[in-house]
Amino acid sequence: MRKIRRAGFVIKPHAPDIKKILEELIHYFEKRGIECFLEEEASRKLKRSEGFTREELPQRVDLVVVLGGDGTLLSIAHLAAQKDVPVLGVNLGKLGFLTEVPLPEMYLTLDSFLEGDEKIISHRRMLEASFKGKVYYCLNDVVINKGALARIIQCNIWIEKKKIATLRADGIIISTPTGSTAYSLAAGGPIIQPYIPAIVIAPICPHALSFRPMVISSELTIRVQLLTGGEEVYLTLDGQRGVLLAKSDVVDVRCSDFELRLISSPKRNYFDLVKEKLSWAE
Description:
Blueprint: E1 6-11, H1 18-31, E2 35-38, H2 40-45, H3 57-60, E3 63-68, H4 70-82, E4 87-91, E5 101-102, H5 106-114, E6 121-131, E7 134-138, E8 141-146, E9 153-159, E10 162-169, E11 171-175, H6 183-186, E12 198-204, E13 214-217, E14 222-226, E15 233-237, E16 241-245, E17 250-263, H7 270-278
Parallel strand pairs: 1-2, 1-3, 3-4, 4-5, 4-17
Antiparallel strand pairs: 6-7, 6-17, 8-11, 8-15, 9-10, 9-14, 11-12, 12-13, 14-17, 15-16
């Protein structure tokens, strides 16, 4: 593990006590000789002049600390993964499945990480979505779904160039194991350990009740072609970024070569997290 010389901070600006937490965290790093870089929202919160965009920050640091919720982490996860920068998510939101480290365990976790404890680093594979010559990276999921109108949409689905189905539904979710506890779970998909090499295909309210969620190998490529015209249909990436689709548009989804190195608390494992956050099997 490379030595941490520069740490970057991304925040949810309206989280409780965020200014105090951020100031104390910066003091913690500076006392250890680690230079601190602030994302724009964090810079404004501390009334400092220089702040960096979320696109710029992973290029300048060796570690990103996210203070907020899962949405805040997802907004920078795809950028950090492309630069191989580890991310620590501190939960100041509600659910906190990705920002899994609670505030009381923040310094314990940082101490372990800075001392070189590799066991607390979880390697999370990303998805790569290709559309009209552009490539997008996602930690949780790639979703194709309708806009505000109540009509269903139709899509052709291929796996490795073999057409497997024509879907009539509200949409489709293609998820990583990390994202299996997010939108995919709400659509009836399974919970999958993050380390399993798999992709989940989950329809959203399918017209045919026999169209159940499916788990496939992470080595396969999925192609989805939109057959519906005259509707607002979107390609949504991690619930953070969206692109409008038109009839006959094609989206290819595969497992990316990038991984996000997500730092977890040394006091809990994945099964503790599932039970704590989802009350699984209780």
